[in-house]
Design a protein that fits this description.
Oligomer: heterodimer
Radius of gyration of chain A: 13 Å
Radius of gyration of chain B: 14 Å
Largest interface: A-B, 22 and 22 residues
Low-confidence stretches of chain B: none
Number of strands of chain B: 12
Shape of chain B: globular
Structural class of chain B: mainly beta
Low-confidence stretches of chain A: none
Largest sheet of chain A: 7 strands, mixed
Order of helices and strands of chain B: EEEEEEEEEEEE
Order of helices and strands of chain A: EEEEEEEEEEE
Mean pLDDT of chain A: 93
Chain lengths: ~110, ~110
């Protein structure tokens, strides 16, 4: 068990560009969550999947954000037309059903 | 909606001092409560949890008791060490509402020798 992994760990982009992050959950986990953490704040829930179905999206997830989990395994989070306010740490977590969530190391996004 | 209010920091203590970090919550259902720790440059790690009222979670000398009457889950440690320096997050999740976490804003702890 290698834990939850995220790629890339760091991303620097210019305003207006699109970025995509990947999360690989623990292999047998059917639930996958995305969170965003800004400096000095706690993580905020964005969305979650059960298998390949996206079951809930926070109002924080604007139309520029889209998440997928096409085969119920890894997930991608895409941000289109990035803005400086999107700069944050993006965290992924996974769980087996309603069990304990395990967090990945996060992807730190900086929008210039 | 569900939310967590956490004692603001930063907190600076001398080694072997007593630690308390306050956390109160608001929830519509019957949440589970957690403390997570984030060491510099690392991801979130579960420190302890409690799933129902009056449960006490404990780990590495840290303790927190789920108090439904005061809607609180305060973190305590009797004697902190330099290695405890980190950011601590209180969180709740509710199985009836998707089980996603609601986190507090975090409390930065620095322990000086």
């Amino acid at each position: 068990d290698t834990g939850v992994s995220q790629d890339p760990r760091h991303k620097i982009t210019k305003r207006g560009q699109n970025v995509t992050f990947r999360c690989d959950p623990i292999s047998e986990h059917n639930r996958l969550y995305w969170y965003r953490q800004t400096l000095g704040q706690g993580p905020e829930f964005l969305t979650y999947f059960q298998n390949e179905a996206q079951l809930e999206k926070s109002r924080l997830l604007s139309d520029r954000f889209s998440a997928e989990r096409p085969k119920g395994s890894f997930s991608t989070l895409e941000i289109q037309r990035t803005e400086q306010g999107d700069s944050a740490m993006y965290l992924c977590a996974s769980s087996l059903g309603l069990g304990e969530q395990f967090f990945g190391p996060g992807t730190r996004l900086t929008v210039l | 909606g569900d939310s967590v209010t956490q004692m603001e920091g930063p907190v600076t203590l001398s080694e072997e001092a007593f630690l308390t970090i306050n956390c109160t919550y608001t929830a519509t259902g019957y949440p589970s409560l957690f403390w997570y720790v984030q060491y510099p440059g690392e991801g979130l790690q579960l420190l302890l949890k409690a799933t129902k009222a009056d449960d006490k979670g404990s780990n590495k000398g840290f303790e927190a008791t789920y108090r439904k009457e005061t809607t609180s889950f305060h973190l305590e440690k009797g004697s902190v060490q330099v290695s405890d320096s980190a950011v601590y997050f209180c969180a709740l999740s509710d199985r009836n509402t998707g089980n996603q976490f609601y986190f507090g804003t975090g409390t930065s702890l620095t322990v000086i020798p």
